[in-house]
Amino acid sequence: KAFAPVDNRIDLVTVGDGYTAAQLALYGTHATNSINAFLAQEPFNRYRNFYRVTQVNVTSVDSGVDNDPTQGIQRNTAMDMAFWCNGIERLLCVNVTKAYQFANAGAPDVDQVLAVANSTKYGGAGYPSSDLGTLAGGNSSAAEIAIHEFGHSLGNLADEYGYADGATYTGGENNTVDSSSLA
Q1: How many beta carbons lie within 10 A of that of residue 38, not counting itself?
Q2: What is the per-residue pLDDT across 13-57, written as a single tens digit (0 to 9) for each?
Q3: Three-class secondary structure assignment of the chain
Q4: Staple partner for 136: which of 45, 95, 107, 119, CB 3.0–4.6 Å?
């Protein structure tokens, strides 16, 4: 494979999970829509020219991801994406090693990975120590999920709300990342 020279860009690589070979066009639509909306928001829009986006096509045996729409549903996918991680329904986890294997095999350079699930269910996760975010590509809030999760993975920002009761966080500035919560 031939790649353009590596330069001083943030290399953002999308990889899809739960898309069969017949659904790669759908993955392309989900990834493109999410990235375009993401890069249309400030401050990303201002720095748009500093991003190089590469879409890597990944095929799965089964369509969809684990625990979608409910717990207990298992699918054979390339990156093992699943809802209900750590007991949180909307926490959409991925096998980070597999996501990076696909990203590295299909892109000239990898700084950030966005793993896109073939799902309309609301969810995502941010992996600050792995520079990776996940999102449900078919959800109407996919772009907002991408922005939120990249706050974790690119900006190393922590959440400032509680999962159990949904209450608004009222404490001081959170200056550490709680990677155990991931979303």
Answers
A1: 23
A2: 999 999 999 999 999 999 999 899 888 988 888 988 888 999 999
A3: CCCCCCCCCEEEEEEEECCCHHHHHHHHHHHHHHHHHHHHCCCCCCCHHHEEEEEECCCCCCCCCECCCCCCCCCCCCCCCECCHHHCCCECECCHHHHHHHHHHHCCCCCEEEEEECCCCCCEEEEHHHCEEEEECCCCCHHHHHHHHHHHHCCCCCCCECCCCCCECCCCCCCCCCCCCCC
A4: 119
